[in-house]
Amino acid sequence: MPRSLWKGAISFGLVHIPVEMYPAVREQGLDLTMLDRRDFAPVGNKRYNKGNQKEVGWDDIVKGYEYTEGEYVVLSEEDLRRANPEATGTIDILAFVDGANVPLLYYDQPYYLAPGKGGDKVYALLRETLR
Description:
Low-confidence stretches: none
Number of domains: 1
Distance between the termini: 25 Å
Radius of gyration: 21 Å
Strand content: 25-35%
Number of strands: 6
Number of helices: 2
Mean pLDDT: 87
Largest sheet: 4 strands, mixed
Shape: extended
């Protein structure tokens, strides 16, 4: 079994279900590091502005999401902390919808959840309820 990417819980109402998240697709490639052939030291990448080709310091870098070509929404560290499920360790279920009603644009990378330690029975109960 692959190693879990995240451990936390699913929560709705008073129900708290420990779960672990796993990738549904196994990567087949290798992550290779570029090395200088003379001394085998890793080669770094320079941070530069792709518009004016000038080097950019860490203090001038922000994180953004490209929602359409050339258009970005900038995300602050606070935005990223609030959006991070690991911050609370809990995925809160707010509503249930039929899978056919979820637009394909929300499907990026497939994962599956499995019961966490001590959560087998309550996880099975949730699974059967969703059927």
